[in-house]
Structures are given as C-alpha cells and as structure tokens.
Amino acid sequence: MNLESPTVTVNKTAEEVFEFLTKVENFEQLMPESKQKFEKLSDSRFLFQLKGMPELVLEQKSSESPVKVVLGAASDKLPFTLTADIVDTGDGKSTTQLVFEGQFNAMMAMMIKNPIQNFINTLTENIGKL
Fold this sequence. Notes:
CATH superfamily: START domain
Number of domains: 1
CATH topology: Alpha-D-Glucose-1,6-Bisphosphate, Chain A, domain 4
CATH architecture: 2-Layer Sandwich
Helix content: 25-40%
Number of helices: 3
C-alpha cells in the first residue's frame, strides 16, 4: 500500500527541514491533536499513540542530507516506512512530501488506509507551518 501526502511549501531551507526531521523529538510538534502519547526512546526512535489506535514505535531507518529522511516501524508486525522527500526551491524555501509504504493484507489495508492518509496529511500540513 502506497500513500502520498500533498506537497507543501515550507518557509525554511531544505537543510533546515532535514535537520528538524532528523531529530525525533521534533515529531511531537507535528502530531495531530488526537495524539495521546509521545515519548522519545532514543536519538533515532520514538513511541506515539493516537486516540483509538495502538502504540507505534518509529525509528529513523536512513537519511540522505538534505533531501530525504526515512522512518520505519520498529516492529515487524506492521512493516512500513514513512519517507520525507525534501526539495530546496531557493529563496530560503523548500517543499516537502511524505510517502507511506506498507505491506499489509487486503483487509488490513482497507481498515487503515483512511486513518493513515489523514495522519500523513496532518504531519505534512504541520511541516508546512514550521
């Protein structure tokens, strides 16, 4: 299952957005209002929970300065990645888009598609407000 957020313009350079997204504690600022729990577990890992959802642990899997940050599930139970693609547009601005890729059975994909799409859209909107 592949989902993409809209691309947003950020009033920060690609380097600034990259630096922000590589600090896992900053994701707390990007979470939706339905966030019930957020905990930094290490410099590359955090746990979060949204209302009505189970706790998830995300970890930074890789990064490519200043154009890409890849987060992924720390558990193999829900195998997915969340990639931030960052493009410098000049004039101190950049664009960012989130891409979610997961491997789920058809029933699970149908159940989680809309909540995940809403989640990545909210994260992207909040990145645009930086």
